[in-house]
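Example record

One chain of 335 residues, shown exactly as stored in the release files.
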Amino acid sequence: MSKRTGVILDVQMKRESKSFTDALYAVVTAAGLFEGPKFMLSGLSGMAFKFTVHEKLLPLSVTAYGQWGREHSPAVDNLGIFFQYDGGRTRHASFGEYQRIAIDSVKQSLDRGRACIYWIPEFGVIHGYDEDDRVFYVQDGWSGETQVVLYDNFGLNFTPFWDCNFIGEHVKIPLQDAVLESLRLALEDWETSYKTLPDLSIASGRLAYSFLIRALQQGGFDSNGAVYILESFQTSRIEISAYLREVQSVLPGLEEVQRLYAELVKGLRGPLAAAISENNSGKLLNQEQLPSLCSALKKALEMEERAMQQVSTISGQYPDLKRSTLPRWGAHTAR
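Predicted structure tokens for this chain:
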């Protein structure tokens, strides 16, 4: 039997949400592991609820929501999909060996009909390879075109790290259980102020609102990053509202959470549209509209705080074995 020299999978990634969510949706729908709209995947995984802001509103804010392995594993687990990740720092002396093993793993996954999630940056999809030319075929979701990444350049980019994710088979999780866990993941994000310690320049959850509002009021921020953060934030809250509308009958009290997010989305629509304009150079913020935008963001913070208080009440009505059961050997002992 001759060895395969390549494969190209029919996978179509489209940038609409967070880049990891877009890549994950493309991979799992192509593999037949998830059915439904993207907002359902974004909500069930808890990815829609992640909100992080750099103090200077740098574009990296949108993907700097924590250590990716710790953030992505619970998200994909809650979809009932087997998930593995690999990554690290390209400056490490061991990178060459990790790169070689990861290249083989990607090809094996593609041979099984599973595309891979890959940090380009941001996250994209590896959907094929050619062994003769020693290249991977990659989509970034912004255009319908496929990019080429040489095996020798796998993992190398302008950031100091690399990341690649693999999916496996699927098990069925009862919808009520998945929805409840998505709310608990959302609550963890909301109540965790810093996900990238010891770095205190990036805030998460409710504190991210304060970082965003303060930067807009004080000035000196990255204009492109500000637009990207605001548009990503609006998209994610629209996703949350749509998700909760779909599942609000699953848990008592969820209707109120959905109502609050729907009100949040409605209240932001006008101020955001007025604050962001577009010219030949791209999108930019209208400075004279920033006071109104900050006022709308403060109201959004109040709405989301009330929503999370209701989420906490709902969560407290059900046992949470994941967070209340101490492992046999304790939480921090060596294994």
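Notes: Residues 290-315 form the longest helix (26 residues).
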